[in-house]
Amino acid sequence: MMKAIGFKQSLPIEESNSFIAFETEKPKPDGFDLLVKIAAISVNPVDYKIRANAAIDVVLDTPKIIGWDAAGTVEAVGSKASKFKVGDQVYYAGDITRSGSNAEYQLIDERIVGHKPKNLSLAESAALPLTTLTAYESLFDRIKINPEKDKGKTILIIAGAGGVGSIAIQIAKKMANLKVIATASRPDSIQWCKDLGADYVINHYNLKAELEKIGHSEVNYILDFVDLKGYWETAAEIIKPQGHIVTITGSADPLHLNLLKEKSVSFSYEFMYTRSMFTTDDMEEQHKILNEIAELMDRGTLKPTLTTTLEGFTVENLKKAHQMQESGKTIGKTVILF
C-alpha cells in the first residue's frame, strides 16, 4: 500500500475536503513504465485548474490523484523499459491522462522521463520538468528557432517571473541566442527576471508603450504564458511581419486570426502533454530534452527556478501550494519535499 492525496469533489481550496489523504494499492510497472518512489513534487497552475474543474457537481467513487512534476528514484521497471535501472534518480512532468504525482509511488512511461541533474537537489529537480518542457517546445518545436540563423532576434515573454517564464528566459537567452524582453510589474519579480538573464524587463500593463520606451516597438516572437485573449490584439500589433506567436493559454471566445494575415504571422499552441496524451511518434523527445537540460543545469549554464520548499507530503502543504498558485503572484516554483 501507499499514501496518496486526492479529491472526490471540485471544491474551493479552503474547504476541508478539497484534498484528502488516503491509502491505495502500490502499482506495478509493465511495458515502458517505471515505478518511481517520489521524493519531491512541484505544483503548477494546471494542478489547481484541474482540481477546480474535474469533479463539479459530482462526487467521485475514488479520489482523483493529480500532480505533474516529480523527482525520485526508480524502484522497478517494466518489461520493455531499457533507459533506466533500479536505483536511478529521475525527474519528469508526467502524463495528464494517468494517475498523478501526488502519491508516494507513481507509474511513468520512461520515454518522458529524464535522468535527474546530478548537481541539483531532488527539490530543485522536481521544480523543472513541466515548465522546462513547455518553454523548450515553445521555442524549438513550435517556433523552430535556429540559434545561429536567428541569433539576436527579439522575443517577448509575457509573465517572465512565473514558473514557465523563469526557465523560458534562460533557454531563450542561453540556448536560442535571442534578445529577451520579459514582462513583470513588482520590484521583486522585475529583479528575478533580470537575474535570470532578461535583457529588458517591462510592465505588462501597457506593452506597446513599454516596448517603444526600450526601442523595440515590434518583436520577432511572442511567448504568452498568462492570458492569450487579454493580449491578443496588442500581440497582433507588436509582432513583426513573418513573426511567430506561441501561447499555452486558451480562449473561451474565438480568436480573430485575421489580425495576423497581412503580416503573415504564424500562430501556435503549445501543450506539453500532447506527446504523451497521443503517444506520438516523437514521444521520446521529452526524454532527450530533460537529459539535455540536466546537463546544462549540471554545467551551470542554466539556473534552478525553485523559490519555495514546503517540508512534508501532507494535505496542509498541498493546499498551501495550491493557494499560492491561485494567487497568481508566485515567483519561480513551489516544491513539496516528501
DSSP summary, beta strand count: 15
Kindly report the name of the CATH homologous superfamily of the largest domain.
Medium-chain alcohol dehydrogenases, catalytic domain
Helicity, in percent?
A: 25-40%
Low-confidence stretches: none
Going by helix content, strand content and strand pairing, the class is alpha/beta
**Shape estimate:** globular
Distance between the termini: 17 Å
Please write the CATH class name of the largest domain. Alpha Beta
Q: Mind summarizing the main beta sheet?
A: 7 strands, mixed
- Tell me the count of domains: 2
Question: Mean pLDDT across all residues, rounded?
Answer: 96
Question: Under CATH, the topology of the largest domain is which?
Answer: Quinone Oxidoreductase, Chain A, domain 1
- So how many helices? 10
H/E series? EEEHEEEEHHEHEHEHEHEEHHEHE
Strand content: 15-25%
Gyration radius (Cα, Å) is 20 Å
Quick recap of the structure?
This protein has helices at residues 45-53, 122-126, 129-142, 163-175, 187-195, 207-213, 228-238, 274-277, 285-299, 315-327, and strands spanning 2-6, 20-24, 33-43, 70-77, 89-92, 105-109, 113-115, 154-158, 179-183, 200-202, 219-224, 239-247, 266-269, 306-311, 333-337.
